[in-house]
Structure formats: C-alpha cells, structure tokens
Amino acid sequence: MLIDRQIIANLLEMERDDVLSIYLNVDPTRPENQTSPPAYRIWLKNALDELEEKVAPSLSREKRMALRELREQVTSYVNTYLPRGRSLILFTANDFQQEFSLLARVNENYLHYGRPDVTPLLWLLDEYERVGIVLVDSFQARFLSAYLGKAAVYGETELYLDTTTWPRYDLRAPTARGTHGAHIKGSNVDAFEDRVAEKVAGFWREVADRIARWQAEEKFGYLLLGGEEKAVAGVMENLPPEVARKVADKLIAPLYESEHEILLRAKPKLTAAERRREEELIRKALDAALSGGQGAVGPADVLNTLREGRVHTLIVVWPVKGEVHRCRACSFFFLEEKSRCPLCGGEVVKEALREVIPRLAFYHGAEVELVAGEPARQLGEYGGMAAILRY
C-alpha cells in the first residue's frame, strides 16, 4: 500500500483527542513473538494498563467508559490478528480505524492516546522511502522497486541478437601470426565482435533511457545500479545528469537473486546514502543559520519560523523528544516555562514536540527530515532541530 501525503494529512487534520495510535513489532521471525501469547500482545496489555491508570482520573465518566470500550475493542482485534508483515500500525477510536501492515520494522512498540501520532510513521516513510533498483549485464536488465521493506519486480528487458540478417562471417578464418608466433584474430572475428559490442552499447543506452523515464514517472528517492560492472558503467554514462545524481551506490548482486535477497544487499547501501544526505542537509542548514542566511537552529527559533511559513525543510533528531511552550493567543513558541506569553500576555500551554512538529509542518507545506546516527549527534549539539528556509 502506498502511504501518500494525503493519508498523513487526513490523520493530522482529525479534530479529536480520543484516538489510540499503536505501533507494534509483530515480526513472526523474532523468538519473542513465537511464544504464546506473543510478546507484542503482552506489551500492548501492559501499555493499555498504564495508559488507563494515567489518563482515566482526568477524564469524564463518559470518556472513561469510551476508553474502556476502545481498549476491549483493540485487545480483541490484536489477539486475533495474524501478522502479514513485521509491523502493525493502528489509528483507532470507537467509530474509526485505520490499519497499516508493513514489512518495514518499527524500532520499538509505542502507544499514544489523544490526537493521532504519526511521527513514528513519518520515520518509517523516511527510512524506507521508494527506491528503484536496476540489475544489468550485457544482454539483460531487471527493474525492481522497493518500498517500506518490500521489493517487487517492475519489469525485465533483454537484448536479442538476430544474426541471421547480418553479413556472413567466417569465424573460422585462418589467423595471421605475429612476432614470436602469437596469433592475431582475423578481420572476420574482429568485425563480428565489433558488431556485437555495438549492439550491447545500444542496449545499455536503451536501459538508461528506460531508467530516466521510470524515474520521471515514479520519482524515487534513490536509485541503485547493480549487476555486471562493465554494464553498470555503460548505463551510468548514458544517464541524464539529474537521474545519475539519484544513483546512491552500485549493488553487487546476481541478476536473478530473489527480491528478498536483493533487498538485504541493498539495505546497508541505502542506509549509508540516507545518512550522507542527512549530513549534507544539516551542514547546509547550520552554515546558513550561523552566517545569518536562510537557516534556523534550535527548537524555539525553528518552530517560530515554521509558524510563519518560512521553512522549506525541517530537520529533527529521531526519536523526537521534549516539550515546548506555546501561547494560545498568538501561537508564539518558547522553551522557558512561563505563566504568560512574554509577547502578548496570553495563556501558555505545554506541548510535546512529537505532536507539534508534524502538524505544523504539514499545515505549512514543509518537508520533514528525521535524522539518526552520526547526523543526529551533530544536530543534537544545536538543540536537535534545524531548518532550511524558503526566504
């Protein structure tokens, strides 16, 4: 299932605070999920116990009853659920449910009650974005697409040499002898091999053209090229520059490995490419912010420029942690706890960053980049948040 921007927007626009957002690692290959009951069911029961104990006292009697009913509904569903992937994601209320069963694996089980929490889903979409994989040799090419942990064959093509229409070559023609008795190929053999090489080069140009059209149509985050080294080089030199820049790495893989095996080979290269891209985005944002250009750093400054609609790309350390204070009247953000807004004197509320960020970003059309690993460490020195501005 393609999870597009509209699906995320629909969840973020829900004006209700009675939704359970549930992220479960249901991977049946994990030993803890092979027990009876599996680990994710035990975790969910305990998490629901803690949730009810924490929030029930602050709810009205009607809402407490609704939460209890929702709990029973969710427990019944998960207890009879047969995993169709590695992750189960549920957004559910008494009269609403949206489910995603994904092959991509959530980092950890997570439960939230209130407005839909899409932040872990955004992380998965960022880490497992759509990728095009092409394996090629001198006579065949195989096209695969990968998305959210699943790979599928898109198409195949091959070079068919119909030599019946070619001039007749006597490939057994006598060869000349060079110095010291070395054999030199006859001109017939050379002519035949040159013609084959010409056809192969034409095939690589056709593959490159097909990749360019495929990329224009699908808009992959990355491309991977693999197969025979000479063939990969032949295709690369024929790609348009804007498409060649999308090639994250070369993949060493036989043409007809299974989709699963190809994806296993591809994952480390894609992860490395994603970390490189994140480092470049952070460098660009920090350079701009520290030089007074089109950049911002730190939660308060970034969120206030985001509120003004000036952010093009929002960069945030994953997992998203912490809270921020917001004025109910003017929506100004600040980090220090205050009873009243320092700008307008309005009432101040405390909000979790993981709830504020996706909603504000989608409302203002900003791209969200959640970063991990070394890029996250670098950004952590600046409050864990930066932005590249539109103006």
TrEMBL record:
Pfam families, per the entry: baeRF_family10
Domain of life where this protein originates: Bacteria
Gene3D superfamilies linked to this entry: 3.30.1330.30, eRF1 domain 2
InterPro entries associated with the record: BaeRF_family10 (IPR041202), eFR1_2_sf (IPR042226), Ribosomal_eL30-like_sf (IPR029064)
Name of the protein in question: eRF1 domain-containing protein
Native species: Ammonifex thiophilus
